[in-house]
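Hi Y.,

Following your request, here is the sequence exactly as I used it, all 588 residues.
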Amino acid sequence: MEANFESNPLIDRLPKHLKQFIIPQDYNDYTPINQAVWRYVMRKNVDYLSKVAHNSYLEGLEKTGLEIDNIPNMYGMNRILKEIGWAAVAVDGFIPPSAFMEFQAYNVLVIACDIRQLEHIEYTPAPDIIHEGAGHAPIIANPEYAEYLRRFGEIGCKAISSARDYELYEAVRLLSIVKEAEGIPEAEIKAAEDQVDFLQNNMGELSEMSKIRNLHWWTVEYGLIGTVENPKIYGAGLLSSIGESAWCMTDNVKKIPYDISAADQSFDITKPQPQLYVTQDFAQLSSVLEEFANKMALRTGGLSGIQKLITSKNLGTVELSTGLQISGVFTNVIENEGKPVYIQTTGKTALSYREKELVSHGTDAHAEGFGSPLGMLKGINLAIEDMGPRDLRAYDIYEGEQITLEFEGNIKVTGEIVTGTRNLQGEILLIKFKNCTVTHGETILFAPEWGIYDMAVGKKITSAFSGPADVNSFDMISHVPSSNTIKQKKSAKREELENLYKNIRNLREGKSAEITLKEAFAAVTANHENDWLLSVEIAELAKKENNTDLIDKVLNHLEKLKINRPEVAHLIDGGLELIFKKAININK
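Below is the corresponding structure, written out as tokens. Let me know if you'd prefer a different format.
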């Protein structure tokens, strides 16, 4: 499949820390067996999903230019996705949830470019191009759903994680790799499964990231839409799994009306889902997302927000009521009557306003950390941020003045004011002191010999969220996964089978082939007796040629194979049904 390269401008504007996850898609790496797997799944899906999927799915297949017979080329996808305001990039398997969501916020679809093995054709725990390309891409052609996905990414990437969240991500990534790879000892797979199972059942109090991952799972991945009695599929995990898309429509899977309680319903990635949520429409998805966001530290701030950041031990940001944003690893908060009165970071810290780093307040200026009082001055009803020029002069908050500021909560700042930093509206964001001492009771929080002291101005924390305010403030090009995807092993026998698949593909496409259909069937039955998909493809071409003798031989072989390999019997039947059902209908 040829495709001309055409860049998508959405990819060009991605920040560097997201670009580190992008890998090239080498289309030549896809083998003839890979192409046959894609074709089988897509033929089955389009046939079945046309009856049970949301109507946006089939419309989206057409809009996004996905072909049934060919694995999508990323360049071709980008050329078409650009028309609906999206882009696609290739990545290596699972990436951290926050990065995955941030890509969505930029209208960029993340596609794991590997493809599942034939042995895992129905379902794989590893993200692959069938799941991402055939599952996610078509449905985003619906503008209402696409906006939900973008908005979800925008909010989700700000969710505060726990240390256990990252452990689970690494464990799930490893499990997805070892389960998809061939030749991995069962004991190694079992150990990876046990680790995921342990973490899933010992997450403690769910973090914001855990909860929003739950919402993502029950909507974007495994969502149903419509009514509980008559739901349709829109979740990518279901759209890309020929096994689960059928299973989920049976009474074995409980259907629950979708609401915010789904955020507290964890999932097991290693097993079919015992229950699924049904949203009334795509508008309800956005409504529940906003309901959830209203409870996040992103919007509530306060003492609990800073405490979540401290617990996370990760880079985060608090925004004060003045708009000043402090980004770093928060390690301490002093509270008074349920309010934070002093906050502290350790290590590199940056100060920003409206997501743009303040001049001279990057990580070089605050390499050792940053601490500042918050709140009201003791005995004064007017906050510093609300003071006009006369008020500031009256309280001696003025350049060159030696002053002591006593904050509620027993925080005291004593020093000489050097200058202040204001925003464009003239509001004070920072006050700079020299010869400064900051204390909490008897505890010294800042001493004069430590240098110039920058005090943040803000009566309260209005927002707390994961990551930096300005993505350029920190070097975030540091993600190194603990596990890498394992490529399929090559052998002479495997190469021979691949060549047979290639010849059948050439025959189907009207290209020159090295052997005839009959010779290909003889070779596969003689040397690759356990392979079933090539025989199904041979039956398809034999039917087109009206070669009844070969059809009978192939069907007899497949019947024996169904007995010898009962685990693939339904896959064989599914493939044959696609080939022969039209003929059966015509005979009727």
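The chain has 22 helices and 17 strands.

Thanks again,
Q.
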